[in-house]
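Entry 14. Ran structure prediction on the chain below.
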Amino acid sequence: MIELFYEVRAIANIKGWLSGEYFSVDDTLIQATAEHKSLEHRDGSDDDGANIKGKTHCNGKHASTTERDARLCRKYNTASDLRFMGHTLSDNRHGLMASAMITTAGDHAEREAAKAMINEARQASGDWATTLTLGADNGYDAQEFIEALHEMNVTPHVAPPHLRA
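Output, structure tokens:
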């Protein structure tokens, strides 16, 4: 499947449908197939017993026995479920995806994935000198991320925290 993505991206690039300079990044949570009942203590102890209802679980102490990389997380006011995080980097000229990846859900996953996808876009273009532009929502508003973008020769356009939904 990934080969198909790269082939379509190469065709889009040949046809001039990718600017290679103006990007947007976003992420979404992806529901894991694992259920809460697959959670167990990472250290192998069983002090929760078989019944997890009403118990507090956290990623630091618990992991799914069926999907070890799935993490408990939630977005906004939804229930906490086992999930992964999907990320896309879109070229703004025609809205085509320039890169995509799935990671373990976490506090910094979206920003780390964005940096990796920008580097991949640079490698694909072979142009390390051009200043890129990256648009992102307020989930990417972190000083470390903004500084890293500047070091990567990327101009960030990140929504400030006061625009949170």
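The domain at 2-31+84-163 is CATH 3.30.420.10 (Nucleotidyltransferase; domain 5). Will compare against last week's run tomorrow.
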